[in-house]
TrEMBL record:
Its EC number is 2.8.5.2. It comes from Marinobacter salinus. This is SoxAX cytochrome complex subunit A. Keywords: Electron transport, Heme, Iron, Metal-binding, Periplasm, Signal, Transferase, Transport. Belongs to the SoxA family. Its cofactor is heme.
Amino acid sequence: MLKAKIILVALGAALVVPQALAGNSPEEDRKEAVEYFKQRFPDVPFKEFVNGQYALDDDRRSQWESLQDFPPYEFAVAEGKEMFETPFANGKTYASCFENGGIGIRQNYPYFDMEKKEVITLELAINRCREENGEKPLRYKKGDIASISAYMASTSQGKEFDIKVPDEPAALAAYQDGKEFYYSRRGQLNFSCASCHVQNPGNWIRADLLSPALGQPSNFPVHRSKWGELGTLHRRFAGCNNNVRAEPLPAQSTEYRNLEYFLTYMSNGLPVVGPATRP
């Protein structure tokens, strides 16, 4: 861990002032982000950003493509499908809670609920569906909820993200809160999310090749070799906070949901490719 800290601190010392997006609207921010990554990686086609580090490194991509012959998340997706279709005690299923029966809708999450004035992620919606039907909520980072979410994502593969930020104060505030979280330094290492994924994608930290921010939510839930199982995006958020020695927040906290809202909006126009595999 000490070696990792030294490398991270050295990397941080080489950074310039964070390149925070300065658009006057979420859409201006998104266009600015897309242009930034296009200029930084001119040889990477726009839709390849969903493949994270594998869009940047040929050797890693070759290894990853070999793994796709037998993706390690297949059993979890099958289990998720079975759970999704199994009736609750009251006879209803998850399909009763979602538009189009929950099929092919991943690209619309997270969204801002104008009545509740909050960001609704897919995992939060899954648990609220359970509670509305008299079932106990699932744990948010892994296990059954990751499998159900992975199955639902699999039915949206190829559909492009189309996240909306209504021109309404509460929605814009949630977006701005997520943006500020992404660009705020924290933890003992004083790193922001942007330090790694805006300023340093394509660089290495020990054996980790940093991925670009653009397209990151597209592949979740992911099966990580490090985890040996599927995990949700908020599990990854907490892991990143731990890496910079910051206190992680609870999965599905307001802060993490707003962060997901901002980050996913930046990926509008990119396709859902989850579930996927990562190191």
